Every structure is written in structure tokens, then in C-alpha cells.
Amino acid sequence: xxxxxxxxxxxxxxxxxxxxxxxxxxxxxxxxxxxxxxxxxxxxxxxxxxxxxxxxxxxxxxxxxxxxxxxxxxxxxxxxxxxxxxxxxxxxxxxxxxxxxxxxxxxxxxxxxxxxxxxxxxxxxxxxxxxxxxxxxxxxxxxxxxxxxxxxxxxxxxxxxxxxxxxxxxxxxxxxxxxxxxxxxxxxxxxxxxxxxxxxxxxxxxxxxxxxxxxxxxxxxxxxxxxxxxxxxxxxxxxxxxxxxxxxxxxxxxxxxxxxxxxxxxxxxxxxxxxxxxxxxxxxxxxxxxxxxxxxxxxxxxxxxxxxxxxxxxxxxxxxxxxxxxxxxxxxxxxxxxxxxxxxxxxxxxxxxxxxxxxxxxxxxxxxxxxxxxxxxxxxxxxxxxxxxxxxxxxxxxxxxxxxxxxxxxxxxxxx
Length: 416
Known about the structure:
By secondary structure, this protein is an alpha/beta fold.
């Protein structure tokens, strides 16, 4: 039986943690793999794991220019939900939510998924009309959502300013299966599980370009650690997708923005659900450490910087103080930001690209964390079988040629 006593924790701390076994290997890259995945965030690691577990493709390398989970996977508010609007989106995010529900058991690693429920609050007749249609669309697809009145919101979210003088809450809706998970645990769990199936996880290995054969097919990548050949290359780099696709020779219909998030000092338990105000765009939950984790809208100018601007920060912080007034005096512990990839129809791009041999997973905008399991599952299916999964079919690159867009801006929570 392994020893995980308080004494061992103290002993390892005193000797620089030299006795712990690494959760995953740090191998040197091989000359060739069946699949090379660029991007060591949640989606890249999940793709590697499901390639190995579901399809037996284990000669896989995940290349990360920094450290595992150092991008958007570690720079979000960890909310997980499936309350989107269109049937295609609902199927996608329901798959992800269902995978999250069994993820700790599947990975043998506690990702701390807490299904505390989510309340969406409406403040006008127009918003009530919109969410009535929204809930109807969800219920038609069998998703567990329902309308709630002011009294239930006041009971479940007592910190919310339900009698705001300008924007009184008229009602809303809830999804009880929604919740939050620990972002670093999701990344580490997938990394450890993929490593145990034979996947090579190579950090500090930035990709600078692509290698092609005589027919123009992409057959490898150039990296900081040398050239690596591959039968297929997968891009899973969120806001940096446009830059790498430019290197691959095609334009991606993606714009990169900064999305800020904040956490307060630890407080006693005061909020046991995720709550979201439609009029302010601010959403908040309480972490297991006691901090209030909250966010709002995008910085509405293109940027690759992982930092936010002051006006948007003031708007989001002001929104928290205005609609959750009991939190107004909580001190901000820290702020962070990620680079999110917004597509014209606020829906992801999954599957083959115009460059033969290159697959992509991008365009999740503000919803990438909640989609990690589905993004990995679906792209692994496409790479391994050569055909898109039925759920992923509507989200292919070719929809921009056919015009079959899925305008999910309202459900995605993106302001434009």
C-alpha cells in the first residue's frame, strides 16, 4: 500500500519533493509519429488520450511550446454547461457534459467536477421571451433545463440583487447538471492517462512550420527540438490558430480576443451555484478554496496578449458589485486573461482543413474549457477513422463555403 501520510508530505517537502514519481514522462521526441498534436492544453491532451484509448493509436506526440495547461485551459472560469440553443450545439455540449460526469472515474484522477447547477437571470420582457425559446429548444433535445421564477432565484442565489431598481430580475432558467471543475486537474488527468497509454508529451517544444511532401500534403512539423515527421498533424492552439494556419497556407475565419477573469480573496461558503446575469454579462461561482471566480465580456479588439485592459476589468468588477452587492467589499486576489478564438458564427471548427494532412480543433471562443472532452473525443474519431463523427459533421471547415453556419452567439455568451 502506498504511503500518503502527513509525515511523507512533510518529508518530501523538506527534501525538495525528490521522492515523488512524475505523473508523466518527459521523453525526447522521436523522428516520426502516426499523429503529432500541436498544443498541450485540454483539447490537445484529450485528443491524444482518446486516440489511444478509443482507437488504439498510441504513436502520438503532444507538442507544447510552454508547459501543459499553460494556455486557455489554465486561464478560464471553469464553468461547464450544455445550455446552448441550436440542436447541433446542444448535441456537442451534451456529449461534453456527459463525458465530464464520468471523467474522474475514466481517468482515475479527480478533476473535482462539482455539479452545483447554474442559474441564468433575465431582467426584461425581451430577455424573458428569449430564454423561453431557449429553454424550449433545450427541452426539445432532452436537456434538463427549466424556467424559474423570482422566488426560486432569490432562494437559491440570495446574494443576487433581484430587486435592482433599474434591472429587476423577472425570472430565469436553470440547469442543475451544470457546474465547475478544477482546470489544472483536467489537464493533468488527461496528461497522465495519455502518457500511460504510450503518448509522448513534449513540453518547451514550439512548432515553427510544416513539412510537405511532393504532392503538398503536410507530413510533419519543424520545432524547436528539430523536425518531426507524422502521418497526420492536429492543431489545437486556440487563439494562436490563425498564425499557424497562415504557415500552413490558408486563412482561418477566426479573430483572436482577450478574455479576462478574476478571483477574490477566500470567503466562507456563500454561493453554491453558478449564477449569470444576462444584462451585465457577468457570471460568478465560488471555488473550493473560497474565492469568488467571475468574468464577463471580451476585450473587443484583436489581440494575442494574455492580459486584459482596465476599462473591461472595471466593467466586469462593477457588474459583480452591482448585481451581487454583498460581494462589493471582497478584495480581488488576482486577475488573468486568455486568448480566445472567435469564429464568425460563434461555433467551433473541428476536422480536416484545406491543407491535406492537417486537422484542427479551434473556434471555441469563451467556451473551450467546457468542451474539452467532446473536442478531444470527436477529433480523435475523425483522425483515426478518416470520417467526421455525426456530432462533429456540422462544425467542419466547409460550412464557410456552403453557408451552413450555426450562429450560436447568444448561447455561447459572446457579445458579438
